[in-house]
Amino acid sequence: MKVAVVGATGLVGTVMLKVLEERNFPLTELIPVASEKSVGKEITFKGKKFPIVSMDTAIGMKPDIALFSAGGNTSLEHAPRFKEAGTTVIDNSSAWRMDPAVKLIVPEVNAHELSIDNKIIANPNCSTIQMVVVLKPLHDKYKIKRVVVSTYQSVTGTGVKAVEQLMNERKGIDGPKAYPYEIDLNVLPHIDVFMENGYTKEEMKMVKETNKIMSDDSIKVTATTVRIPVMGGHSESVNIEFENDFDIAEVRSILEKSPGIIVVDDVANLKYPMPKDAHEKDEVFVGRIRRDESALKALNLWIVADNLRKGAATNAVQIAEYLIQKELV
């Protein structure tokens, strides 16, 4: 089992390597890939040194699986080349997500859709992943009509430059900016570019990706995505309107029994999910579970997950694990 990690030196790429190691992924050969300026440098995996190779070298090595986290343009150019070499690509960028010929996968939700013919598989947006993990079991039971979500997203979702901006601002250092405004002691209701309808691209990703992953265009979704000065994970306030009524105790029981979810919901003892608790964890944390008293058959939830792990690297590795388990590679 030869596995290439494309973008191995980036924020998500380094977490992918960490997750592969932690989960004892059954690879026999690791092929780290990065930009030309990094070729020849080494990364450490399971105590061994591995040289970083170029895209062309990696394709020539014909890996079984390539985990991509190197940006949309890189994926559009090189994922088809890996596919032609017989490699199954799991891509973390937005390049292929809405392509009708490409599966958009969250293993707890729709891994069953995968077949041996799927040679390019898309990893969804981080904020969508953590939300649909929670929506799916509730939709199966009560049928979701509408979702209103507001996100509180970590600077790590933007990348290294954003983390540096936050840390520099905290130290009073003037440095490169990832955002148009200060992020420390501030909140930016602006993630990705604004579109003609007044929504940002990130907000519309959550709308369209949710429908595709859930295989149900009848679910209406509206989103407001917000960048906040935290590390460790994304948080979401989610309001769900159902077709059928529900019992709060049953909702909690369904979530507690669902794969990939940890319920942290004990307000009497001030227990609820926070980004610092989700940091470096693979699960999705849910709390503040309560009926929406302003609407019929409506529920409020608070959802938190590590955006670099379940929101990106871990989800991709879980897809790879499923492919191996089902002998689809």
UniProtKB/TrEMBL annotation:
InterPro entries, alphabetized: Asp_semialdehyde_DH (IPR012080), Asp_semialdehyde_DH_beta (IPR005986), NAD(P)-bd_dom_sf (IPR036291), Semialdehyde_DH_NAD-bd (IPR000534), Semialdhyde_DH_dimer_dom (IPR012280)
Active site: 126 (acyl-thioester intermediate), 234 (proton acceptor)
Entry EC number(s): 1.2.1.11
Pathway of action: Amino-acid biosynthesis; L-lysine biosynthesis via DAP pathway; (S)-tetrahydrodipicolinate from L-aspartate: step 2/4; Amino-acid biosynthesis; L-threonine biosynthesis; L-threonine from L-aspartate: step 2/5; Amino-acid biosynthesis; L-methionine biosynthesis via de novo pathway; L-homoserine from L-aspartate: step 2/3
Pfam family, one: Semialdhyde_dh
Matching Gene3D superfamilies: Dihydrodipicolinate Reductase, domain 2, NAD(P)-binding Rossmann-like Domain
The protein's enzyme class: oxidoreductase
Record keywords, A-Z: Amino-acid biosynthesis, Diaminopimelate biosynthesis, Lysine biosynthesis, Methionine biosynthesis, NADP, Oxidoreductase, Threonine biosynthesis
GO molecular function per UniProt: aspartate-semialdehyde dehydrogenase activity
Chain residues that bind substrate: 153, 227
Binding residues for NADP(+): 9-12, 37-38, 307
Domain Semialdehyde dehydrogenase NAD-binding: 2-117
Top-level taxon of the source organism: Bacteria
Residues given in the record as phosphate binding sites: 97
Summary of the function given for this chain in its UniProt record: Catalyzes the NADPH-dependent formation of L-aspartate-semialdehyde (L-ASA) by the reductive dephosphorylation of L-aspartyl-4-phosphate.
HAMAP family from the UniProt entry: ASADH
Family: Belongs to the aspartate-semialdehyde dehydrogenase family.
Summary of subunit composition and partner proteins: Homodimer.
Protein name: Aspartate-semialdehyde dehydrogenase
Naturally occurring in which organism (per UniProt): Pedobacter fastidiosus
Lineage of producing organism: Bacteria, Pseudomonadati, Bacteroidota, Sphingobacteriia, Sphingobacteriales
